[in-house]
Amino acid sequence: MRTYLTFLFRCFRLSFVGDARYYAWMFLLTVFVLLGINAYCKQLVYGLATTGMTDQVSWGFYIANFTFLVGMAAAAVMLVIPVYIYKNRELHDLVIFGELFAVAAIIMAMLFVTVDLGRPDRFQHLMMRFNFPVSMLTWDVLVLNGYLLLNLHICGYLVYCAYRRRQPSKIFYIPFVFVAIVWAISIHTVTAFLYSGLGGRPFWNSAVVAPRFLASAFAAGPAFLILSLSVLAKFTTYRVPEKAFLTLRNIVTIALAINMFLLGSEAFTEFYTDSAHGASAKYLFLGLHGRTALVPWIWTAIALNLVAMVLLFMPLSRKLPVLQTASVMLIVGIWIEKGMGMIVPAFIPTPLGEIVEYLPTMNETLVTLGIWAGGILIYTILVRVTVPVLTGRLTEDQDFEAATTASSAAAEHAEVHP
Fold it and tell me: I want to staple 219 with a disulfide (CB 3.0 to 4.6 A). Which of 78, 79, 256, 345 is the partner?
């Protein structure tokens, strides 16, 4: 226990050590976190009236980001499968970074649900009425918390074993890895069922919602890992094998193509049948009775995703700058399509035929930016602690001051010789 507590304390100290770029990055994220906290304090005082949500559109920016982040967390499994199912040992250590990202993404997702509650102090009433197993919301609470604990255990155990310089015992993490694979699929499937199970919202009543959620998640999540691994390769001495980028590129390409196919299939069903239930889709893609707030958003998302897909199918995307560009485009495109393009149109028009458009307020945007900054801050700290341990610069038998000096020197070396 003493060794473990020493390990945690040294990790805590290490999170405050870095070069000027690290401090500037952490300062910037902290500023956005504080702005978000200030905006949320205003929301606590004045209620959800500080947001753009109304009685007609009761889910907005917060739930849109929650939906997107649940998928990003589920995508961590895309590195686990090639390593543990197909025995690709070259990518073994990279699984940890996927698991760390899943931890940060789940924390952000939970925070978005929390700020979406008008009275978070009454959260215990939800727990007291835990309508299990009928309520899909109950299932979502269970799978999200379960997935968070699984990822904390897996990456925490592997990093601690690397710190102790001992071989991890397979019985303590391999079973959890395979459970996490199934659990990762379940968290986004259950989230999709939350929407498709609401009979009063015809826009969500589609059997392809869950497959679309999974396809978009398995495109955007690995794309984010491509970007984060690129930063690791450039600014640290951690060697990211080229095969990792190529494996993730193949996953992203296939998943994005499937996602675009499912989006086209759903659009065909809505427009070709021309049923009364297609009003929400018409509002999203074409506008309804002169209301076109979301039309530029969805067509921008489609354009970004199509361009990204073309780039990924070209051999040119084997080059890292092109792959990074395509990754940024598809992340933004899927965030728009899966967030604002999925959540808001289901409330327009209302069951009474009203058309009340939704636009997030500045306060709502600041809260959102604060949560994103907080999640990225957590991920940065987790990666900052993990890299020295995996590279052998921070171990149980090594002096902490020597480890931090070696870490700073390695960062400077990486800057000169990327």
Answer: 256
Q: CB neighbours of 21 closer than 8 A, spacing ≥ 6?
A: 235
Q: How far apart are CA 52 and CA 160, in angstroms?
A: 45
374 touches 111 (CB < 8 A) = yes
Tokens of 320: 């890292």
Tokens standing for 399?
């002096």
Residues 6+ apart with CB under 8 A from 213: 67, 71, 188, 189, 191, 192, 338
CB 393 within 8 A of CB 411: no
Whether pTM > 0.85 for this model: the answer is: yes
Q: Mapping DSSP to helix (H, G, I), strand (E, B) and coil, where does residue 288 land?
A: strand
Cα gap 228→45, rounded to integer Å: 37
Cβ burial of 134 (10 Å; 0-12, 13-18, 19+) is: exposed
Specify the residue for token string 């890299």: 387
Residue with tokens 């930063």: 231
The Cα 251–Cα 81 span in angstroms is 11
Can you name the residues that pair with 288 across neighbouring β-strands? 291
Phi/psi class of residue 392: alpha, beta or left (left: φ > 0; alpha: ψ in -120 to 50)?
left
Q: Which tokens is 344 given? A: 């808001």
- Find how far residue 401's CA is from the centre of its chain: 34
What is the rounded distance in angstroms from the CA atom of residue 317 to the CA atom of residue 249? 8
Q: Which residues contact 417 (CB under 8 A, 6 or more apart)?
A: none
With the CA atoms of 68, 106, 194 and 112 taken in that order, what torsion angle do they form, in degrees rounded to the nearest 10?
-70
Spatial distance between the Cα atoms of 163 and 85, rounded to a whole number of angstroms: 26
- pLDDT tens-digit readout, 44-71: 999 889 998 988 888 889 999 999 998 8
**Total H helices, total E strands in the chain:** 16, 0
Token digits of residue 270:
């809505």
Which DSSP category does 57 fall into?
Answer: -
Q: Read off the tokens for 236.
A: 């640290």
Residue 217 in contact with residue 72, Cβ under 8 Å?
yes
In angstroms, the CA 366 to CA 119 distance is: 19
CB 140 within 8 A of CB 194: yes
Tens digit of each residue's pLDDT (9 = 90 or more) over 71-106: 888 877 767 776 666 666 666 767 788 888 889 999
